[in-house]
Batch of 4 targets.
Target 1
Amino acid sequence: MRFFILFIVFISFFDMFSQLPIMSTYAKGLGAGAAFIGIIVGMYSFSNMIGNMLAGYYIDRKRGKTILMIGLGLCGAILFLYPFAVTPVQLLGIRFLHGFISGFIVPAAFTMIANRSESGAQGKSMAITGAAVGIAAIAGPAFGGIAGSGNVQTVFIVNGILMLLTAAAVPFFIPKQGVSGGSSEKKAANHSGRTVSSLMIFSFIGAFSLMFAQGVLAYMLPLQVEMLQFSSSASGTLLSTFGITAICIFLLPTNKLYDKYKPFHLMTLGMSVIGFALLLLSNSTSLLMLYVSMVIYGLGFAWLFPSISALLIQQTAREVRGRAFGYFYAFFSLGSVAGSAITGALTVSFKSGFLIAACLLFGNVLWMSLYNIWKNPPNMV
């Protein structure tokens, strides 16, 4: 069952990442202008955020198995609508539906994984889940670029088939009792309401900060590579470098560190390391330094992603965990949109864009650390 849920996580992110290399050109081919192309591309994240926020209530009330089966099935059906779009407005509507329905799948999958994680091993569990996301982040764009170069509709059809087949397999691989089953863990009710609230906010801020940096990186790194007159393929290999680094940390025995150290400390460490990597990127003029920066970025990502997820798990009771993960991934979507949109709107250079993202990360680390010291909450985990 656990492997199957990890596969669902992989398929969901693979679907999203595989469309990154093709959506702009697909929209342009339908006659969309530059501004409208940006709206079409961003619509997925916008509606995904809405779906994330609504998903939690249904996950907690109607159980994640049903959400996964319906969500995967509808998402697969929507993917088959893409080839029928003949105008930019139709494509925009399909993107809205696609992002909205997809917003239900990931919170449901992560909630089920969290509820089945052994007490004291949530960090390692989230690290392994992060590896599934990382593999999708590497394989998705590669598939989209290769398949889309021949016939862009192939990407939608293949993803649609995968979604429908996975939806059909849900009843066989996820038993009825599996959704709410799992080992016991300390209830968040043991903590004061104020402490739970502050730590959950820290997790949300960590998610926003991570994806803000990702948004800036996705927007600025290709511009930096182009300005430094390196091969256009360097952008892809640089992004793969950080992904491979993170996956190695997730899957190697180093993943034991996630349950040895407190999630809050690993979270602030990861944010600081990513901030440092962004500072290096802003001053990198050689390909070697770019690769070194991306390896460091991958280390920070590897420490940050599982720790913010583990922090959320340890501070929420099972009965409300679906809602917690729903809002958690809404902050993911918001950060991704804000990172690229803000730096794009300011029309800043890649150096200034990386500095803005680094300042956001360091600023959040500073105020959260000071707040933690000031409050000194008991039972900090």
Target 2
Amino acid sequence: MASNILLIADTQCKPEQEWPHLAQLGRFIVDKRPDVIVHIGDHWDMPSLSAYDRGTAKAEGKRVYQDIAAGNAAMDVLLHDLHKLQAKQRRNKEKVYKPRKVFCVGNHEQRIIRHVNANPELQGFLDYSHLKLDGWEAYDFLEPVQIEGILFSHYFANPHSGKPIGGTIQNRLNKIKESFVQGHQQAFMYDKVYTLNRVLCGIVAGAFYLHDEEYMGHQGNRQHWRGICMLKDAEDGHFAVDEYRIEDIMEGRW
């Protein structure tokens, strides 16, 4: 049976933020009730462990525990309305809406593992167990998960270089050779390739947050796509797409 799959792009939650867009997305989930929810990763931004900022003024005052606490609090905001609905359904002895929830670890969460590898005295003390992922199926960084014939991963790497496969959707489909969905890149791209036996579909959708990223500069932030999408009637690698900009979610236009 075909599934409707909600794709949540990189949310990149940091300390001292508020997340009204995640609260609204939680209402969207309760209203639309997708069969599967996939968060494609980079929910915990982990700026305290950024190798780019280490040793600079930008790293001053940043703390690992604050980064983890921020992402955990944001996850509570996202799931608040879902948990409220489920509690009400249990009280009323109704059928409980339980979507499959899948989380693909992103490179920002993987900063934790890279930091521990560089500081082995932290082994057994700092790991993914601090992230509030109870109730989610969690897949490690770049470990693809297949749902309805579609591969989901934070991004897909070139096997020879380890770097993300880039370029057009057609180029990525040619390299991956499967229907795929990824985040990581602050853009929205969607297309199909027709082969002799099947249709391959690909999506890049890499941002669902309100803030600007300093490293992207004025032009990069202005041209930045922010939103979510619903993969409709996904089955055997094929799906249609409903795209929702972050403005649509914030204003309840769905």
Target 3
Amino acid sequence: MRERFVETTTALLAEDPRTALVLADISADAFAPAAYRHPDRVLNVGIREQLLLGVTGGLALTGLRPIAHSYAPFLIERAYEQIKLDLDHQGVGAVLVSIGASYDRAESGRTHLSPADVSLIDTLHGWTVHVPGHPDEVPALLRDAVAGDGSAYLRLSTLRNARPYGGDGALRVLRDAGPGAPLLVAVGPVLDAALAAVGDLGVTVAYTHRPRPFDTAGLRALAGDTVVLVEPYLAGTSTRVVSAALADRPHRLLALGVGRGELRRYGSAEDHTRWHGLGAAGLRRSVTGFLDAAPVPAGR
């Protein structure tokens, strides 16, 4: 995904003089050719993430369409106040593109883990969040975000599904178990594991790479009384959205994702997937346990 981001951004800088790129050393080597060709629109502020967002806001105020890029914990967590003030408070938009996701660089320790990034963006108003599940989904999502004028967050990962799924982010049914069946919604790169987990169960599986704005109309059309939400970041991040969309009907909701407890082990991304129960086996245990624990009808 990172390579597709570099390729697409380099092309956008050449095609559209409104596009700008702000870096904080991360990926600077990959963008060196673009910086040579467009020195006024490719800026590297060094390891100063708050300045990264301050410059991004300033460029947006001049009428440019800036892309700000770094690792997720540096871009979102470390510079959150600047996102809130230098973008939102000033009423300007930008495109934030992260790498590292929740635990892609787990071997680098806690400084490089960021499962709460989407939750932080969710405290702001009107943001679009894209969580692609395959590298081939990245170019169209990035181009659409840059072509707009609002604020967008594109969350890239080393984890991926076997194939891309296009579309605008509306829920896409990949396995239909029929009317009234439990619905599992998978976001981004957890799709393949989710499909494997429920392969022999009567569960409908829908996919999205755009958790914000969440496709609530699609959710209402597909959901019966049981919904399972699988997200590759902090568990429960989209619970409020799903619950609000289904507030007028009885439903049960299981929200799966990265746990809140800190794992004081480095390991690999694959280890963390297993430890958080986001592999096929872990999801299978969680989903079957939830389905088997269906509530007893009233009066029995």
Target 4
Amino acid sequence: MNKYQKFDFKKFSLGQEKCAMKIGTDGILLGAWVDVNSPATVNILDVGCGSGLISLMIAQRNPYANIKGIDIEDGAVEQAKDNVDGSSWAKAIQIEKSSLQEVKSDVEYDIIVSNPPFFKNSLKSDADERNSARHTDTLSLSDLFQNSARLLKSGGKLFMIYPFDQLEDIYKIAALHDFYLVKQRTVSHNVNKSPKRVLLSFSYQQKPEKVIKKPFYIRQPHSNEYSDEYIELTKDFHPFL
């Protein structure tokens, strides 16, 4: 697929030609996995919203969600606004140009979700916007947890996806800011491959009764077909499932 082509999901479509970072598996997994099944109004902050993918996935899943998406990239903000305005959830989602560090809010958020920049010490491209979307210069792990603690209510949740090889650093920084691990899914291509990503849910200030840790496999072990769990998780979004 051409990287600038509109990406069609079952209930919304996303343009992505103005975004530095294109739609990928990380964002789809996180948007489908984040726990937003509350019968009450839920205030949600989507950090680094890009094209608006995760915000729209959450809005589709929870009609009570009140979502703010933020990004520091002009093209992403413009793109997300276009995508949200063209969807059925324009009233539920507000898009703003802002860094997480700059966010001020009159409400305490129930959920913060982020598919954050996480490339460290790697060769940067010539495009400044793509660099800011991919690298931790603009949002380090410490910044993410410190500012999430500032904006979340007690018991609020932080959901994120990150490289698996940085898991120990994540544990340490989370503990410094009073976050407790609730759920962890190590993400691998299949059972025969080592994990590359990890889906994480943390609770702010409230320790859970139990912690869930399970692997997640995108594909079947001996074929390139999607795993049953991937299909179950994303079937409400992918038009081919």
